[in-house]
Automatic annotation (TrEMBL):
It comes from Gymnodinialimonas phycosphaerae. One of its GO terms (molecular function) is arginine-tRNA ligase activity. It comes from the Bacteria. The keyword Protein biosynthesis applies. This is Arginine--tRNA ligase. The gene is argS. It holds the Pfam family DALR_1. Residues 5-94 form the Arginyl tRNA synthetase N-terminal domain.
Length: 575
């Protein structure tokens, strides 16, 4: 339970006491009562809306309830002051012992500080990246990979049972194009001159694949029609591309639990089973769709198709699952794939898509709702575009890929830690500018450097103190008594609540934001120590005070390390 949850329980107990005293009527609904940080930190440490929530049902003025509640809360040793503000909000200021207790708690919990049980071991499937296996991952995939991986780690810390999954799009026509592109490189490896037509993949990354194919089959496919080689090269090329993608993911620190092949859905009855499930629920029918918006009547030829009644589950229009020629639409295998997820017993599904899949969200949610009878929620997170630049120059090309900047390019330019952290400095659905020069600056304007610098600074103090024979000792936490020190401890106390809020909202960027704020508070206290010797963390002439202050900054380092661990970033000890 977080400190905020504990104080909320205290507020609820005080409400109960007021009911017992006859000040408040019995039977009040308290579920909407909250205890949160106030909007203005100068107002206090926490604020509760209890009086505002209870006023109507109690038939009382909010301020009258707030004043009675403040009097009750004043009896709690943890609460220094309880003051009524505005129409009836109640601002609380906690005692220094509470914040010193938080520091001791962090030191005791270590890596476990911030872990939660709100997930209750619910099984969550997080599908992310899922790029077509036709080439190396690009900078856009990088953002989705980092976001999905950090989200999975966040949910794990919050107590969910998480499965990280990659859906291999190897069932469509794009893999045939890959096979033909590899065949051209294969012929090139045999000394032939080739031309890459529009629609093929001309990137240099296929040169090695063409050579590997030559090493495997010799000249068996030279000058042969594709009926002799398409199926085999398709499989060979897909495996080669997935090896490349796995290598890219490893470079980014991403490790999947499951790689699921779209191809495995075809010819196995899985698509048919999913559609039959929907048909059994009265959600599959034969019909005609309205012409697409913007089409003139003479451009449109209505054809009877097999349709999924997705409007019954919140979609705007019904969606085709089988074309008039009897072939499946792109949507059909996606339905089957999510039917498989539901069948595997997941309690919640999360899909991380690129921004270009925005039009796919409602139909996919409708499908999962229908397939699970509303039991399994699907949250689709869209990651917006990344503009990679160097100053005023936008970087768009890769020597290896030919047409785009690869994940490997980015990591090689700025490193894994910078890549991962910076990808989370904006909410996933907001565009992101990634300046490869700016992110390597050693300044407050570079969030990853600023956070890592705080961690390194702390460890430099700890090393210096250890050389003088001084170590953190919670018995001396009374030395942590200045308002700015207690404010830093209060910031540490926010971390468990932040984890729960971020996990519930599927928002790992909140962790990055919090770490930057925590680092800023630490650096500010460091700077105050330059002017006020009493606030310095290491005091040669006062071992007792030093050991207490070392506890405070050690707790800050633990929280930074734990938070960076969620983001997949290394907490460096020296810079």
């Amino acid at each position: 339970m977080t400190l905020f949850a504990e104080i909320r329980e205290t507020v609820l107990a005080a409400i109960g006491a007021l009911v017992a005293d006859g000040v408040l009527p019995d039977g009040l609904e308290t579920r909407a009562v909250t205890v949160e940080p106030p909007r203005d930190a100068s107002h206090g440490d926490m604020a509760t809306n209890a009086a505002m929530v209870l006023a109507k049902s109690a038939g009382m003025k909010p301020r009258d309830i707030a004043e009675a509640l403040a009097a009750k809360l004043a009896d709690d040793a943890r609460i220094d002051t309880a003051k009524v503000a505005g129409p009836g909000f109640l601002n609380l200021r906690l005692s220094g012992d509470v914040w010193r207790g938080i520091v001791a708690q962090v030191l005791s919990a270590g890596k476990g500080y911030g872990r939660s049980t709100i997930g209750a071991e619910k099984r969550v499937n997080v599908e992310y990246v899922s790029a077509n296996p036709t080439g190396p991952l690009h900078v856009g995939h990088t953002r989705g990979a980092v976001f999905g991986d950090a989200l999975a780690s966040l949910l794990d810390v919050a107590g969910y049972d998480v499965t990280r999954e990659y859906y291999i799009n190897d069932g469509g026509a794009q893999v045939d194009v890959l096979a033909r592109s590899v065949y051209l490189r294969y012929l090139e490896a045999h000394g032939q001159k080739v031309a890459f037509e529009d629609g093929t993949y001309p990137g240099d990354y296929l040169i090695e694949v063409g050579q590997a194919l030559k090493d495997k089959v010799g000249d068996a496919f030279v000058d042969k029609g594709e009926q002799f080689w398409l199926a085999e090269i398709r499989e060979f090329a897909t495996e080669q591309m997935m090896d490349l993608i796995r290598s890219d993911l490893a470079m980014l620190g991403v490790e999947m639990d499951v790689f699921y092949s779209e191809k495995s859905l075809y010819g196995t009855g899985r698509i048919e089973a999913a559609i039959d499930d929907l048909r059994g629920k009265g959600l599959i029918y034969e019909g005609y769709l309205e012409p697409p918006k913007g089409k003139k009547p003479d451009d449109w030829e209505p054809r009877e198709q097999t349709l999924f009644k997705s409007t019954a589950h919140g979609d705007d229009v019904d969606r085709p699952v089988m074309k008039s020629d009897g072939s499946w639409t792109y949507f059909a295998p996606d339905i089957a794939y999510h039917f498989d997820k539901v069948s595997r017993g997941f309690d919640e599904l999360i899909d991380v898509f690129g921004a270009d899949h925005g039009g796919y969200v409602k139909r996919m949610k409708a499908a999962v709702s229908a397939l699970s009878d509303g039991r399994v929620p699907l949250d689709v997170k869209l990651t917006q575009l990344v503009k990679l630049r160097r100053g005023d120059e936008e970087l768009k090309m890769s020597k290896r890929a030919g047409t785009f900047v690869t994940l490997a390019d980015v990591v090689e330019m700025v490193g894994l830690d910078v890549t991962r952290f910076h990808m989370l400095t904006r909410k996933n659905d907001a565009p992101l500018d990634f300046d490869v020069d700016k992110v390597r600056e050693q300044s407050k304007d570079n969030p990853v450097w600023y956070v890592q610098y705080a961690h390194a600074r702390i460890h430099s103090v700890l090393r210096k103190a250890a050389e003088a024979g001084m170590t953190p000792d919670p018995a001396n936490l009374d030395a942590v008594n200045d308002p700015s020190e207690l404010a830093l401890a209060a910031k540490i106390a926010e971390y468990p609540r932040l984890i729960e809020i971020a996990a519930k909202g599927h928002e790992p960027h909140r962790v990055a934001f919090y770490l930057y704020d925590l680092a800023s508070d630490f650096h500010a206290l460091w700077n105050k120590g330059n002017a006020d010797p009493h606030l310095r963390f290491f005091q040669e002439d006062d071992p007792s005070a030093t050991s207490g202050k070392l506890c405070l900054i050690s707790a800050v380092a633990i929280v930074i390390s734990n938070g960076l661990g969620i983001l997949g970033v290394t907490p460096v000890d020296q810079m």
